[in-house]
Amino acid sequence: MKTTGIIRRIDDLGRIVIPKELRKTLRIKNGDSLEIFVDNEDIILKKYSPMESIEDAATRYVDSFSGVIKHSVIVTDKDRVIAASGVLKKRYLGKQISEFTERGIERRDSFVERQKKTFSFVDGVEDFGYYSFSSIISDGDTIGSVIIISIEAPILESEEKLAVILSKLLSDKFVVE
């Protein structure tokens, strides 16, 4: 654990302010939930991801879908790629999502790129190809995205619909658990 050198007082209501620079660096926005952990005398705050509870199911789904459509499939929460399958798995799994992906999730986007172009769904990784993007929405809140990526062939309409279907399956899985 590394120190930031920042010291804050707790107010009369037991609140503490997390500095703006730290919130920006860690991509913590107004309304985000933080999970609280205790380790001996240490209090640890971690950005909460409801998608972590369905990470195993997401992994099984992306493996199945990728096996059928022969394209890479990734699932993100609002911060990182939580499941990936196909030839791009190693390039994407566990990586921090890009601002482009974050904006797509926030806007509740669902779209397909039928023209081959350069894209970046995670920080520091650029690819050239086709893709389909579908936000995962549960109980009215966006919780992540499903992205199908093809480097070689355009995304078919049926494959575009599979991205939407997978986002609905994961949304339903989240609600059930």
How would you describe the overall organization of this protein?
- This protein has 177 residues and is an alpha+beta fold.
- Helix content is 30%, strand content 33%.
- The protein is built from 5 helices and 7 strands; from the N terminus they run H-E-E-H-E-E-H-H-E-E-E-H.
- A 5-stranded antiparallel β-sheet has the order 4-3-7-6-5, with helices on both faces.
- It is elongated.
- 31% of the residues are buried.
- The mean pLDDT is 88.
Give a quick summary of the entry.
The protein is an alpha+beta fold and 177 residues long.
Portion of residues in helices?
Answer: 25-40%
* Order of adjacent strands in the largest pleated sheet: 4-3-7-6-5
**What does the radius of gyration come to?**
18 Å
**What is the straight-line distance between the termini?**
32 Å
Average pLDDT, all residues = 88
Tell me which oligomeric state these chains represent. single chain
Sequence of secondary-structure elements: HEEHEEHHEEEH
What structural class results from the helix and strand content? Answer: alpha+beta
- In percent terms, what proportion of residues is strand? 25-35%
Unreliable parts: none
Major β-sheet profile? 5 strands, antiparallel
In DSSP terms, counting alpha (H) and pi (I) runs of 4 or more, how many helices?
Answer: 5
Number of strands: 7
Key attributes of the depicted protein:
alpha+beta, five-stranded antiparallel β-sheet, elongated, about 180 residues, two-stranded antiparallel ribbon
Q: Layout of SSEs?
A:
Elements: H1 20-25, E1 34-39, E2 42-47, H2 55-69, E3 72-76, E4 81-85, H3 89-92, H4 99-106, E5 110-122, E6 125-138, E7 141-150, H5 157-176
Antiparallel strand pairs: 1-2, 3-4, 3-7, 5-6, 6-7
